[in-house]
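Weekly puzzle thread! Below is a chain. First person to post its structure in C-alpha cell form gets bragging rights.
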Amino acid sequence: MGWSLIRFEPDRTGWREAWLHAACVRPGLPAVIAMTLGILVWGLSLAAQAATNISGVVTDSITGQAVGGARVALISGQTPLSVGTTEPDGVFQMFVNLPVKPAPQTYTLEVSQPGYALQPRNVVVTSGQADQLSYKVSLSRNEAVGCVPEPGRSVVIGHVRAPASATHDLDLSRRVRAVLEYDLLTEIQKTHLPPAQQPSVFACPNALPRTLKEHSDWARALKADAFVVGEAAPVNNKFKVDMQVSARYADSASLPTLASTPEMNLDLPSSADLGHAALEPIMIALLRAYLKEGRYAECVEFSMAAESALGKSTVLIELRKSCQAKLPNKGLLTGGGQ
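Winning reply:
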C-alpha cells in the first residue's frame, strides 16, 4: 500500500476537514490508522481553543448599586457564544471556548435588563486571554438616556408632575427651566462672570428619583450642581410648583430641600418668578459647587449676585467669606470682608 503526505492547514480548512481528507486519500487506509489520526486531529483542535474567563459586575448608573438578574451575552458578529445572568450582587462569570490566536479578536459583551438601555461593550481576547480581569458595566436607566448636561456649572430640572386633571403633556419641566433660566440670567448680568463660568439650566423631563436617597444620586450622576423635581398644581390659570432641590456636593445622606414657588404664568417666563424660597437652595447649591471646585473668584461674584436677588442670609454670607478667604487678593474684592 502506498502512502500520501498530508499537510494540515487549520486556518484554511480546519482540522476536521483535513482529517476527512486524510481518510479519503487512500480508500484502503486501515480503520485503526484513520481512527488514530482522527483522535490526534481532535486533540489538536481542542488545543487551538481555550476556556476564556469573561467576568465582571453590573451596576445602576444613578445609584451605583448592583443590578441582579441582568442578561449578559458574549457575541461574535450576530452569534451569541455564551449567555448568562448576573447574581444578586451584580457579578457575572462565563467560561467561553474561544480560539487561541496571537492576533487580538474582538467580541461584543451585551448587558440588558428591563428599565435600562442596552449596554454593549467590546471584549478583546488575545491568545485566549481577555483584555480585562473584570468588566465594569454601568447600566443607564431609560429615563436618563439623552440627559447629558454640558460640563460646567449646571442646574437640571427633572420630572415635574402634572396635575391629575391634565389631559395632555404640559411639558412642565421645560417650562419651569425657562423661568429659572430667566431668573438666573437676570442676576448673572450683574456680575463679571465669564460665559464659561456661568451656570446653565437643562431640562430632563423623565428624570424621576424612585426614593428620597436617589435625589442626590441623580445630581451626582448627571454632574448637576442642583437637581430639581416637583409637582405642579393649577391655580387661577397659573401653576404653583412644589419643588425638591438636591445638591451634587451635598452629603450622601442629605434629603432634598423642600420649597414652593408662587403662582406663575409658565407661558411668559420673563414675567414669572420662582420666588426666593425656590431660588435660594438652587443658588446655594451653585455656590457650594464653585467653592468645592476651587473657583473662588467666581464664587465671590456669584455670592454677591445671590445676595442681590435674595437678600443677606447667614448661609450666603458664610459661603462668600469661605471663598474670599481662599483668594490671595481677598481684601481688594468688592464687598470683601463684609
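Puzzle host: Confirmed. Bonus trivia for everyone else. The radius of gyration is 31 Å.
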